[in-house]
Design brief:
Number of domains: 2
Strand content: under 5%
Low-confidence stretches: none
Oligomer: single chain
Radius of gyration: 17 Å
Largest sheet: none
CATH topology of the largest domain: AhpD-like
Mean pLDDT: 96
Number of helices: 9
Length: 189
């Protein structure tokens, strides 16, 4: 397998160094995903910007953010991002039952969150081609056209991270190893 470097501030391309410094300041370390992405400064910067925009500028609350992130992570079978977002969910004080249901692909605690997961998966699996009935069910659950488009923003962010981790085989950060995850049942890779 091709090996990807886990960059430090010193080994990263100079264009990536400010972003890695910001990561280290924010997290007290450089997350493995950021260390790998540093090889392509534009990817690292775009990922960081999309993450911030999705987390801070969309109309989703913390539970809904977690549903979008984890539904995509699980669908993409990302063994780095599922544990990372479990840790993030815990830090955000998301009910553990929500994260457990997402990780285990079992029903969520309420119909609104389940509608969000169902729609997110429809967009992900259909690569943006969604049946009108699926779109209407999402809107009927109380979501808006703005939410439809914000799911696309979340998916864009997750494609960057999930695909990077698949290609690089990014090891789970020590901080998230307690949340290690493997897909079980149908669809397991």
């Amino acid at each position: 397998m091709t090996s990807f470097e886990m960059h430090t501030i010193e080994t990263a391309p100079k264009e990536s160094r400010p972003t890695l410094e910001a990561s280290e300041k924010a997290f007290g370390r450089i997350p493995g995903l950021h260390a790998v992405m540093a090889e392509a400064p534009a990817l690292l910067q775009a990922y960081q910007q999309l993450h911030q925009m999705f987390a801070e500028q969309t109309s989703f609350d913390k539970d809904e953010l977690t549903v979008v992130w984890q539904a995509i992570n699980v669908e993409h079978n990302c063994t780095y991002c599922v544990p990372a977002h479990s840790g993030i969910a815990k830090r955000m004080k998301v009910d553990g039952a929500i994260d457990d249901a997402l990780r285990n692909e079992t029903p969520l605690p309420n119909a609104r969150l389940e509608a969000l997961r169902t729609f997110t998966l429809a967009v992900t699996r259909g690569r943006g081609h969604v049946e009108e009935a699926d779109l209407q069910a999402f809107l009927d659950a109380g979501f808006t056209k703005r939410h439809v488009l914000e799911v696309i923003l979340g998916l864009s962010q997750k494609v960057m991270s999930n695909y990077t981790n698949h290609l690089a085989g990014t090891p789970v950060d020590e901080a998230f190893q307690g949340f290690a995850w493997q897909k079980v049942g149908k669809g397991a890779a």
